[in-house]
Design goal:
Number of strands: 3
Radius of gyration: 13 Å
CATH architecture: Ribbon
Helix content: 25-40%
Number of domains: 1
Shape: globular
Number of helices: 2
Low-confidence stretches: 1-9
CATH superfamily: Complement Module, domain 1
CATH class: Mainly Beta
Strand content: 15-25%
Mean pLDDT: 77
């Protein structure tokens, strides 16, 4: 598997996440917790960077199928 630079994931992730939430938003109440699959977030990569309130976190999928979120 080839890792792509983290900045190349952002446009693709926004498109995938937008499509996934648009499909489910009509069925779920406004206050419901959103659900998205890890494959929709990660795509073919095994990690991505999440920016939250000015702090970057790395979400990584392990070979055993676990998810690890680190600062």
């Amino acid at each position: 598997m080839v890792n792509k630079p983290a900045n190349s994931l952002a446009p693709r992730l926004l498109q995938v996440a937008g499509a996934a939430t648009a499909q489910k938003s009509s069925a779920a109440p406004a206050d419901a917790t959103k659900r998205i699959s890890s494959r929709a977030l990660l795509g073919q990569a095994n990690s991505l960077i999440i920016d939250h309130e000015g702090v970057s976190y790395v979400l990584r999928a392990t070979r055993l199928g676990k998810l690890i979120l680190t600062k």
